[in-house]
Amino acid sequence: MPLNEFEIIQKYFSKPNKIRHDVIIGIGDDAAILKIPPENNLVVTTDTLVVNVHFPKDVSAKDIAYKALAVNLSDLAAMGAEPAWITLALTIPTNDEIWLQNFSEGLFQLINEYNLQLIGGDLTQGPLTITIQAHGFVPKQKYLLRSGAKVGDFIYITNTLGEAAVALQILQNKINLTDESIINYLFQRLNCPTPRVKEGMLLRDIANAAIDISDGLAADLGHILELSNVGATIALTCLPIKESLLEHISLEQLWHLILTGGDDYELCFTVAADKQKKLKEVIEKFNCQIHCIGIIEENPGLRIIKSDGSQYILDKTGYQHFL
Ligand SMILES: [Mg+2]
């Protein structure tokens, strides 16, 4: 006999993971009751994943759940927030218990890793759609915004870019790779991105502006420039890449995918010249990977410079819905 809505919630989403002290009432009542730590601001974000729009039908339930939560945590990271609670609105075509079990595993893997608590949600029947809302805290006045970049700031990226976009090209049969280990790595980057929560929190006292890269570097850095009323010059040769990819794809192709592809969920942030020493100390102490790619300037717009000093002309910006 198939499980009903309440049995599904009970079996797959009311896991007794670590109960947080700031949750007065979690799942089970009409709404959750929560405590925000004193001297903190509440940071809230939400994201929806729709089958065949944000992921193909054959992605595993575990990966879908993981990514749905990871992209929300990435948005909190970009604000410098520490994640705390999530809600889940799940629409599923059928109550397939194997699918639900795998979905629950992917979700609770990240919930446990970041000491989160699922505090409520909704379950409905229809085309597969996952909406997660994530809540986090940031000490008052310490949040990071897209609008804070200042002329003279250095522009940084965490880790490397472009791997998720290469994986998407493989899915679309536009790139043909045979090396299993690199394919697995690329799909791990696409399906299970690591939200840069630690880095976001460390940057609270250091960065002037931050964003997470979901729509390609050009589009997302463009948001910082626009909202901060500044421009920037970045150097193509400084874009952080995984060197071993160059055995399979040309550098020019990889640069283009980094600038326009998206799905990286790395942070792009800007830091003033007088905070460079502090940045270096923190990054070394906490073992983070960052790369300087350019500088914020007064002249509006984004200039991308090739190694010979000439300007690289971009023929497409990031992915946008409804265009
Ligand atoms: Mg974002």
Describe this structure in words.
- It is a single chain.
- This protein is α+β, with helices and mostly antiparallel strands.
- Helices cover 32% and strands 25% of the residues.
- It contains 9 helices and 12 strands.
- It has a 6-stranded mixed beta sheet with strand order 8-10-7-11-9-12, with helices on both faces. Strands 3-6-4-5 form a 4-stranded mixed beta sheet. Strands 1-2 form a two-stranded antiparallel ribbon.
- A hairpin with a 7-residue loop joins strand 1 and strand 2.
- Helix 2 packs parallel to helix 3 and helix 4 crosses helix 5.
- The radius of gyration is 20 Å and the shape is globular.
- The mean pLDDT is 93.
- The site of magnesium ion (MG) has 4 residues, from helix 2.
What string, H for helix and E for strand, traces the elements in order?
HEEEHEHEEEHHHEHEHEHEE
Note poorly predicted spans.
none
Q: Compute the average pLDDT.
A: 93
Bound small molecules, which ones? magnesium ion
Strand content: 25-35%
Largest sheet: 6 strands, mixed
Number of helices: 9
Tally of strands:
12
How far do the termini sit from each other? 44 Å
- Percentage of residues assigned to helices: 25-40%
Radius of gyration: 20 Å
Strand order of the largest sheet: 8-10-7-11-9-12
Which geometry do the CA atoms define? globular
Structural class: alpha+beta
Descriptive keywords:
12 strands, alpha+beta, single chain, 323 residues, 9 helices, binds magnesium ion, globular, four-stranded mixed sheet
